[in-house]
């Protein structure tokens, strides 16, 4: 892993993967994978638009 490392993000990724295995919920695994990507490769999500 190169670049800056955000310890909070790493803890969140680890927790999401743990929850995904425990509850067999793919959504948490996908979210963890999304957070693992470098910032320049992440997709921007318009949350207000999803809310409608």
Task: Please explain how this structure is put together.
The protein is mainly alpha-helical and 52 residues long. The chain has a domain at 8-36. 62% of the residues lie in helices and 0% in strands. It is built from three helices and no strands. It has helices spanning 7-23, 26-36, 47-50. Helix 1 runs antiparallel to helix 2. The protein starts with 6 loop residues before the first helix and ends with a helix.
Task: Please provide a brief summary of the model.
The protein is 62% helix and 0% strand. By secondary structure, the chain is mainly α.
Instruction: Work out the helix count.
Output: 3
Helix content: 55-70%
Query: Any low-confidence stretches, pLDDT <50, length ≥5?
Result: none
- Roughly what is the average pLDDT, rounded to an integer? 84
Counting DSSP E segments of at least 2 residues, the number of strands comes to: 0
Largest sheet: none
Apparent shape:
flat
What share of residues are in beta strands? under 5%
Global structural class:
mainly alpha
Task: Compute the CA-based radius of gyration.
Answer: 13 Å
H/E element string? HHH
Distance between the termini: 37 Å
């Amino acid at each position: 892993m190169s670049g800056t490392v955000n310890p909070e993000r790493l803890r969140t990724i680890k927790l999401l993967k743990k929850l995904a295995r425990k509850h067999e919920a793919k959504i948490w695994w996908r979210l963890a994978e999304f957070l693992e990507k470098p910032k320049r490769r992440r997709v921007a999500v318009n949350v207000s638009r999803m809310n409608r």
